[in-house]
Design brief:
Rossmann fold, 6-stranded parallel beta sheet, 6-stranded antiparallel beta sheet
């Protein structure tokens, strides 16, 4: 069975998902569409991402950008299901193919003419919140809508690293180094590395620079808001928790890995160059 997941904010994803669903169904494959998508296309079966299991799912096919793909990864990683990203917009770092190559991509997918690229993930939790988050890119403790700067103490293996005053702190994977980390002035790491990066966001202390840690480090971030103020904890830009008072966030390498379907060798630095050209309007 193949599960199709799309971005409802991009109408073109519906047409692409229809094309893929029809190709798979014509080939005798079972196809399950995210419920909202099934209600529009009336193809295959309907279901939900969080209902998938390794035993009955060959792959998740995501239509959209990196953000859409990120929403599939916690379930995919926990269930050991590979993910294929079909790009419906701008240059993406995690996506494998675009709509012009859909027919060939689906044929290669069905015949297993691909490799699996594993990427490190982070496991994160917030004190007092009964949920553990799997993160592909980054965990951010920030001031959010708070008009004031916040103070965050950052620890690595219980050793104080920073006592910051600014917009917050980012903790990210090598994969996440090309996201918020990069725009905040952090280093770019090749995605094959398993390190963890920590960097302050607009800190008032110029000497507080990004740090690259070994993958086994355990990070703890602690912040205490002023009365009437809040701070936010953001996971991969997808989940936001608004906190008051004392906030403690714990981050470490996850035991799960994301698996990306790759048809061709990855040219990371070419993608980075194209993305930077896109950002600069060139």
């Amino acid at each position: 069975m193949y599960f199709l997941f799309a971005n409802p904010q991009k109408p073109e994803t519906i047409r692409a998902a229809q094309e893929v669903a029809e190709l798979l169904l014509d080939a005798g494959e079972r196809v399950v569409l995210d419920r909202w998508l099934h209600n529009i296309l009336h193809l295959g079966d309907d279901g939900y991402l969080n209902q998938l299991s390794h035993d009955n799912t060959k792959a998740i096919i995501s239509f959209g950008g990196d953000g859409t793909l990120l929403r599939t990864l916690p379930t995919a990683a926990r269930m050991n299901i590979p993910v294929l990203g079909i790009n419906m917009g701008r240059v993406g770092f995690l996506l494998e193919t675009d709509r012009t190559d859909i027919a060939q991509a689906i044929e290669r997918l069905r015949s297993r003419q691909y490799t699996l690229e594993k990427r490190n993930m982070l496991s994160a939790r917030v004190q007092g919140v009964d949920e553990t988050f799997l993160v592909m890119n980054d965990v951010v403790l920030c001031r959010g809508g708070n008009p004031s700067s916040i103070s965050v103490d950052a620890y690595a293996n219980d050793e104080l690293v920073y006592a910051t005053h600014g917009d917050g702190i980012i903790v990210c994977t090598a994969t996440g180094s090309t996201g918020y980390c990069l725009s905040a002035g952090g280093p770019v790491l090749h995605p094959g590395l398993r390190n963890i990066i920590m960097l302050p966001i607009r800190t008032h202390k110029a000497q507080q620079l990004p740090i690259v840690f070994d993958e086994e480090v355990r990070i703890r971030l602690r912040c205490e808001s002023l009365p009437g103020r809040t701070q936010q904890v953001i996971f991969d830009g997808q989940h936001i928790i608004e906190m008051q008072g004392i906030t403690e966030v714990y981050v470490e390498r996850a035991t799960y890995s994301a698996q990306f379907i790759r048809f061709e060798p990855q040219h990371f630095f070419t993608r980075l160059r194209l993305k930077q050209a896109e950002w600069s309007g060139k």
